[in-house]
Structure formats: structure tokens, C-alpha cells
Amino acid sequence: MEELGTIQVLVNGEKLSLPDGATVQTAIDTAEAPYKKGASVGILKKSESVRSESVREYRVKTTKGELRLEIIDPSSASARRWMESFRQYEGISLRWSSKDATAFGPFSESLKPERNPTKLDKYDVLFSAGGYNPSNFHLLFSLAEHSADYGAPADGPFARVVGGKKLLTSFERSDRILEIEPVIEWQESAKHLVTDDINTALEEGDGLFTFIKVKLALESPEGAEFFFGLIKDGLFEVDDESSSFISDSSLKGEICSFENFEARRDGAVWVRTAGYGTGKVFISRDERAASVVHSVIGHIEQGIELIHMAGKGHSIFVKTDPAPINILGMGFKEAAKHLEGLGVELVREGYKEDDANIVKLNPSSTIDILLAKKVIATGAPDSLVIRVELYDELAPKTLDFFRHAAGLTFRPIGTLPVMMIYEDTYLFKAAKSAEKYKEILPENVLVDKTKAFEIGITNQAAKRMGIVGVKTEDDDLFGPTGEKFSSTNIIGKILEPEKFKALTEKDTMYVLESKKEEIE
């Protein structure tokens, strides 16, 4: 019996041996690669791939995190030496640190040390020979603008730090450089395939990319929450592209605060914060200058190749660092256990009993919680937290309004204060006036009768547009908000009617959305 051959492929950068005829699914299962059903994967063909002649950027992975270096002048002797021998510097440890610089080493080098002061800008990178000894070279990172004699070659700095700058002041003697990788720019002539067909066969030398990992910027806590809202189903939906970016307009019109003024280099994730296209999220494919209306919220840490391959209509699976802290809707005990693993203290507020559901956090953002190592969680009795089913297929545009108004766009739990209760009718007015920027055109309007516990919203055909209502009894004359049928869009139903009937005009109803598969 003839023995089957094998092929060598790369799965998210890791080498893997697979049997001939292996598919994308085989590779994902074998590598245990991050992937979400329905997402697009990228396949880069080795035989047709073309690399740019001059690599200008490098990832330097350390025990504290990742730095990114950009070569200043590729023709300088130090830059050429780096590009030829960067693997030589993997494994070197922090040797010394001062207020002006930090250095990793030592290692031997063929470059000639000079006995002259070198003028350095903040974040410059250069070779430095202790005692002018070629066997005692170090990789030196400048922490401030200064001038000093470091025994550097005549050409001085050969690179600058463009990513991970905050790491430079956190290094300790036990830290070391783990790995150095060039950031490869694949020219447009490279042959590739982007598909959601996991039965696609792979060939020898193929590079498979199944996801992107985004390192969120600590300077952008609100931007990170905005991004979590965008990818709450795990996918970045590419609906526009150019040679310099791909974008997702799912949250277009939603306001995000400007937080981080930074150059938008290849792999930068940024959101437009003002003007036309506010709320649109972009991922860069090239270098762009910083902008006062484009706030950088993170950078691609892994999977940049997929960004360059994906096009309009593709869905990209996204993982983030840090992952979102999703404890809203949890009980206090469950949340405390989850936070314990993150080193975060939980403080109870509001209704503090064990049967409470968490409905509010302070601080509210994942990044601020992790930095503070503490969060104040407001609890509400379970009787006020009510599960609902929403009719996405019947009323998608109205639900876009509802989720924005109730806060479900960015949080797993929504807030609806009770406005009025009369007879069998309960009316709610969301705290957020989303009707100012979201339309509520007639959609899935009532025809025959109102069904008890269905949720209705007054549409633009009536003056009280945006009011949310529920009736506890069937009604042949009026909709859930008390309007005529043609002015009422039906968006879902209450799944816990007994809890609902106990609401008073002093209460706030907290809404938890149940997915169709959970209900079934």
C-alpha cells in the first residue's frame, strides 16, 4: 500500500506538517488555531509570493511585551549589520539601565566603536560598545534626548522605537529579548486566496492565516470599549477597502471620544471621531500621518498578512489583548472568581446580596479596570433583570436604534427606566436619545393585534418616536406603546413575564438579550 505524502505549511506563522490533500479545516484542527465559523481565512502561496527588497520594520518580542523598531537609514553600516544579523541578538538580557538609556547584551560585533559623544533623540536605537571593546557590544535604547559617549559606531542610531515605547521604562534585570522578526511587506503581485470555505485544499508551502490579534492601546480605554462593541460577535466585517486601509462601518454614526494622537502605521487600528464617517473603524495597510479626527485604538500584533489580503465582503476573526472584561449580568460570586484571575478586586455596591446581577461598573472600561486593579460593581435584584428575545430578522433597523438607546451596542445588559404604567401598558424611555441620529422607519408594523409581552417601539409616523412599550394583555386596537398599529414597530418579546408584571414606575428594567439558540 502506497504511503501518503506530507506537505509543509505555515499556520499563523507556525510550521506544520500535514498529509497530502489536507484542507483548511484539517490545518485549523491540527494547529488548534483560533478561528470562528463563517470567518474568512487567508492563504498565501509560497510559489508566487514576493517580498519587498528592503525591510524597514522589525518586531522585537521581549519577556515584557513587543517593541517595534523602524530602520532610519538602510544604507548605514549599523543598519546593514542589523538586517544581516538580527537573529544574533535573540536571547540577550537587560545589562544596565539609567534615566537616559537602557541596554541589552553583551555580544561581539564587527563594527568599530568611536570615542566621541553621540547625540540621541528619545526612542533612538544604536549599538554601544562598553569600554570600546568589540566583544562588549550592547543594543541600546534611548529614553530621553541627550548626548553621551557610548562607544557607538560613527553612524550612530540606526533605528527608532515606533511601538511598545512604554515598555522601555519597565524592563528589569531578568528581562530578555525572546525573538526578532522582520515585518514583511507582501507586494500586490503576491498570489493569495481569501475564503470562508474550510474545505479548501492546501498545498506545499502555503501560509494560512485564520485571525488577527489586536494589542489595544492603554491610552485609548474608551476606544477599546468601542472596538469591543464593534467585534462583539468576534468579527471585523470589511465593508470598504483601499490600498491604504480596510474598514468596518457597523458603528458609523456612533460617537467615540478622541484619545490617542499617533501616526497610523501599517497595522494601526483607528476610529474616526468627528465629521463624515464618525464611528467608522479602520485598519491601516500603509503609513499615514497622525490626525486630530482619527484616534488610534490599537495595533495588529499578529495576522497583519490577513489585513493585506482581505477585501470588501470578508469577515475577519479578531482576538484582543487585553480581552474584554465581561462581568455585566453576572452574579457577584461568579464575577469575583473571574476577576481574581486578573488580579482585580471586586467591590459590591447597590443591591449587594448574592442573588444580585451586576448592572454597572466603575470604572466602566476594561483598560481602566486592569490599571486600577479594582472595580466597583453595582448590583440589582434579579427581579429587575429581564431576558428578552429580539427579532433581528424582522426588524433589523429598528433594533439598531433600540440597542443604541438601551446601551446594548457596547454592553451585554441594557437599561430602560420605566416612564409610565397605566392599565395593561408599560412605557419606557431610554436614557440615551438615539433618535437624534438613528431613524425609526416603519418596519415589522402591527397588522391584526398586539400580542401580550411583545415589545414595540413608536416609529417616525407618530410624534412620540422612540418610546418603548409592552402590553400585558392582547389588544385589538392599539400597539404596545398605545399608538395605532401603523405607528408601531414590533422588535421582540419579554421572556420572563412574571418578573415584568412586578415592575413599578420607580424601577429601571435591565434587559439581557437571549440568543435564538439559547431559547431553543
TrEMBL record:
Residues of the Putative peptidyl-prolyl cis-trans isomerase domain: 386-513
Species for this entry: Methanohalophilus halophilus
Protein's UniProt name: UPF0288 protein BHR79_04375
Family annotation (Pfam families): DUF8179
Family from the record: Belongs to the UPF0288 family.
InterPro entries tied to this protein: DUF8179, Methan_mark_3
